[in-house]
C-alpha cells in the first residue's frame, strides 16, 4: 500500500519554521555552511495505536546552492511537553531538559513537537502502517543510533526476544534458509530514509530479492513503507523507511579493521572470508536480479573510462586540491578505455565499504544497498562492473590503516597491513567467484581495479570535503598514488 503525502495542514508550515533552527545540527541535513530555503511539500498522518501522540511524517524541500532535496522529517506532537521529552533521545537528554529530539512548540494551546524517530508513538504508528511480516517489537525500548550516518536508524528490541521473525503468514512470503535471522534474537532495526528519491529504494528491494533467493548474508527486510508525493507538478512514489533484522552483537567491519590495524594484527583471514562473501553476493545478485543486454566489451571499457573522466570533472570542481591530477587521471582513463574483456555489467551493491559489512557469529553480513548517497538515483541501480564493489572494499583498507594508526602518521609507515588485507580479499573473491554467475577475475582485474579505485577515491574526496574535512587527506593521498 502506498500512502499519499498530498495533504498540507496549517501546522506543517509552523513546524517547518521551527525546523529552520533544528535541521542544521542534524548530521543528515544536506545543506552545510549555507542558509537553506525550507518549504513543506506535504505530510502524512499515521495513527498511534495507543493514541498518545499525534504522529506526522513531514516532507520538507530543502533548497540551497547545489542542493534541492526532499527530506523526510517524522515528528510527534503532544500537549504535554514533559512526556514528549522523556522518551529515548539520540543524545540521551534527561527528562525536563531539551534534548536533540526536542524541536519546539506550535499552535495555541501549544502542541510540543519532537523528532519522531525514536519516539515510541512514531514507532508504534509506523509498525501499524507498514507492509511486510513486521515481527512484534518493543517500541518503548528503542534506541536511536548516532554517528556518521546519511539516514537515521533505530534499534528496536523484540517484544518477545524468543519469538522468531518468521512467525505469521506474511513472514513466509519472505522466508529463506537460516542465516542472519539466527543472529537477531528477533530484534529489528528501522532505517528512516532522510533524503527521499522517487522510485523504489534499492535498500528495500535488493535485500528482499537477495533474501528471497536464499542468500543468508543479508539482514532480511521485515517491513517497509511507501508513499506518494508531489514533485515537479506530478506525483512520484518512493520508500520512506525499511525495518530489517537486527544482527545482534555485530561489530562494524570498519571499526574492527581500524582496531586491528592499530594493534598491527593481520586482517587477512577476515578479508579472505569477506572476499568470498562479496563474490557470493555478486552471484546472488546476478541470479535474483538478472540484467539484459551486456553491450560490447569495448563499449564497456570506454564507458568505464568516461565515468572516471566525468567523476574527475565533478570532483575537481568541488575539491581544488584535485586540479593538479588532470594529466594523470586522463592517462589512466585512456589506458582503461583500451582494456578488453571487461566482464558483463550486473546489479551490484554500489557503495560497498567496510562500514557496510557487519561481523557477527563468525560470519559477515552486508547492509546498506542504497548506493552512493551523493550519486543520482538512476545511477544507483544501473547494472555496473561487479569489481566496483571490490574496489570500494579495497579503498576501505586504506582508510582503516590511516584512521587506525592515526591520521598524523598516515602514509609515512609500512603498508604491509593494508597490502596483506587487500591481497587476501582479492584471493577470497577470485577463488569464490570462479565459475559462478558473479564472474570471477577478469584478465585485467588489477587494471580495472586501479580505474575503479581512482573513481571511488575521487568520490570520497568530495564526500570528505563536505562531511569530514579532517579526513580529506586520505582520498587525496590515494589519488596521488593511483595516478602517480
Ligand atoms: N541489520 C543490522 N543489524 C545490525 N546493525 C546494523 C544493521 N543495519 C545497519 N546496522 C548498523 O547501523 C548503522 C547505520 O546503518 P546504514 O545502513 O549504514 O545507514 P546509513 O545509510 O545511514 O549510513 C551502521 O553502523 C550499521 O553497522
Ligand atoms: O555509509 P554511507 O552509505 O553513508 O556511505 C558514505 O559514508 C561513508 C562513511 O561513513 C563513506 O565511506 C568512506 O569512509 C569509510 C570510513 O568511514 C571507509 O571505510 C570507506 O572506504 C570510505 O569510502 C562512503 O564513501 C559514503 O558514500
UniProtKB/TrEMBL annotation:
Single GO biological process annotation from the record: glycogen biosynthetic process
* Pathway the protein takes part in: Glycan biosynthesis; glycogen biosynthesis
Keywords attached to this Swiss-Prot or TrEMBL record, sorted alphabetically, are:
ATP-binding, Carbohydrate metabolism, Glycogen biosynthesis, Glycogen metabolism, Kinase, Nucleotide-binding, Transferase
Question: Which Gene Ontology molecular-function terms are recorded?
Answer: ATP binding; kinase activity
Q: Does the keyword Heme apply?
A: no
Name the segments for region: Disordered.
158-184
What residues does the Maltokinase N-terminal cap domain cover?
22-102
* Catalysis performed (reactions): D-maltose + ATP = alpha-maltose 1-phosphate + ADP + H(+)
Q: Which Pfam families match?
A: Mak_N_cap
What InterPro entries does this protein map onto?
Kinase-like_dom_sf, Mak_N_cap
Family, according to the entry, reads as follows:
Belongs to the aminoglycoside phosphotransferase family.
Q: Quaternary state and partners of this protein?
A: Monomer.
Name of the protein this chain belongs to:
Maltokinase
Give the organism the record lists: Cellulomonas cellasea DSM 20118
- Show the taxonomic lineage: Bacteria, Bacillati, Actinomycetota, Actinomycetes, Micrococcales
